Here is the input.
Amino acid sequence: MSSQQHPDFEQEKQHLGFTKKYIDVVIKTAETSKDQFQENMKESFNDVDWLESSMSYLSLLTNARFFEMSRDELKHLKIARKKPYFARLDLLRDGTKEKEVLYIGKTSLYSRENQEQLIVDWRSPIANLYYEGRLGDVHYESNDETYNGYLSLKRQFMIEDGRLDEIRDIDLTTTDELLQESLAKSSSNRLTEIISTIQEEQNKIIRADLNRPIIVQGAAGSGKTTIALHRISYFIYQYKENFAPEQLMILAPSRLFIDYISEALPELGVEKVRQTTFQDYVLTAINEKLSIINDNKLIHLLENPNHKESNQLAWVSSIKGSPVFQQILTKYIATIYESFYPTEDFTVDKFRLFSKKKFIQLFKDDYNYLPLYRRLEKLKAVLQNDLAKKKQNMIKKIETYYDDRIERALYRGNDPEKRRQYVSDALDKKTLRLAEIKKAIRTALPTYMRQFPKKSLVYYYLQLFSDPTQLIHWSEGHLSEKEGNILCQYQQQLFRKKQFEREDLALMLFLQVHLFGIPKELKAKNIVIDEAQDYSYMELLSLKKALDTDMFTLVGDLAQGIHSYRGLTSWNNVITNIFPRATYTELQKSYRTTVEIMEKANELLRLLPYSFPEVVPVVRHGESPTFIKRRNGKDFVRQIETQVAFLKKESYKTIAVIGKTMKDCRLLAHLFNEFSVEPVKLLEEQEKIPKDTMVIVPSFLAKGLEFDAVMIVCLEEAFSRESELDIKLLYVAMTRPLHRLFFYGERKEDFIIL
Ligand SMILES: Nc1ncnc2c1ncn2[C@@H]1O[C@H](COP(=O)(O)OP(=O)(O)OP(=O)(O)O)[C@@H](O)[C@H]1O
Here is the structure.
């Protein structure tokens, strides 16, 4: 049963009215004075009937502790006012006679003293019944205990701006209606929360064991980004006593993407989670300002396919990201460590204080949990302590030695002059020796430590590629002589220009961890990586080492792996060698695109050399993707403008023109700037996405984003069937629209599957 004709509609409307007013009172009281509560209550609930019917709630409120809420709780309650809850569950617990009525919302509201909940948080254990429980006998787990009961009602509420529009009683068969409505909406250019329509398979991932890493291979539009954010929200809720949100981290593919997800964060209560990119994180962790030549490589590969240089570029990237470098770096680091084994004992003057054997044993074994330079610091402190302890003893020994000699001299021989001379010499020697030993005590440690010169991370990194013979040796047969030479030459050429590539960052981070360590504040308790398919093996490994935890949520789609020359082509290696505790899940259902668009995009997957299962769109129909022969110059701009005007009339709000390369996009932007009356915005890596302007975006930057309508344009650059990268880029572009897709080009063949 649905709509406003529902017999309970009026009653629910009243309940909503009460809840809203009630929230207002709580907010007002929390913000002003707790003593004002009764008066605030009377003022708001001047309707006597309501007041009486609400007496049970009233009694909850007399407890002053109720109002002690944190600033964050207050903020969330204010947000919740517009839509306090989205569902209701009626549950009769086993062994009880009275059913419980639970209203599920984004944030909870309850009496802290008697635990009676007015609104139950969607992340609480009992709320799982909304996502997974069928009507009838149900159970849920909380604190390792299982609770059983009978679920007699599952009701959804459509509340808009605090107004109840509709109520709907649901069972498994009807849950899709709300989802369909939500998917049919227009995109706002931003990611939003999906709390009321989370699907069962998605819910399983959000609530999967929080003490284990999780890897999700999900089709384009299957909700990976959304789920990852909801999982963080769930984590924060579950561990609110143990961790602050600042201890969690989201690694996004670009700053553009961070801007894109930013709107969903406050609603989910995760806005304080650190959000950064891999590059920015590494540069902070190694504390270096390096010049990184970024996606140049992708662009080069795109613009010069099958070129000899492109092949070399791709090979260099893949080798630097591969496990071969784990081996090379491990050997290299071992060599650096050995170069720190002292050749001499630690002596002060003639006293041997600390043997080199003991030093090496501490350095190698006892402190092996520390990075190299921290071990040195520790050892320096050990020697310093030792010296401080033995200092007086050494001085005493010298004093005793000379005092004994002087004493003995006093009784020696008969010549008083000689005796006097002898004693005077001994006294002089004593003074000299004491001065010597005091100086030695002062200088011995700094002199000893000087044999361990402090070098920078960049120094060590450059050294790694300074000698091809060494590099080949450390690779233990994985690099041929030719390959070792090519790699060293390539790196040296970069270094001469004082440049580094993104692929260098993982290796530098790995070195940093082992040589200098990562500051505590840059470690994280839980990390979410979106677009994880674009990370290399070494990037993921170095991150795990740097962050000192395997609590990662990796979400990605290998079919969209446009950086697979450096990234991953399978999750196997990652699971086996980096995250062996990980749970692996696949999502094949796509929620973004219509059936018509997804079917066309699926044709591209069939052309890829790996077998990707077809993406199953949630059944939502729309217009078929359309090819339009494009005109030139001003006429082409008019053509697009007419299309945009038409789409806007159809109420589509967000529209993007996607070109294959940045070069084509720049040409497009130029054309529009010259001939268009409407403003357009060319999106680059660092941009913010404007809300009401049509955007031009290159295919590789469009990854992860979505728009109501997309126009893929081939101006000078076409997509080639021969290139795996082109197939993936076109796939990325085709899976961006929610509703409409157009291809504008000279020839249909430029779009491979037309
Ligand atoms: N359960 C759901 N209810 C409503 N909307 C959903 C649901 N799951 C996903 N969506 C919507 O589907 C779209 C795609 O979600 P999202 O961007 O998280 O997918 P993705 O897997 O990260 O996609 P891509 O691989 O293309 O980056 C978004 O508009 C999201 O709001």
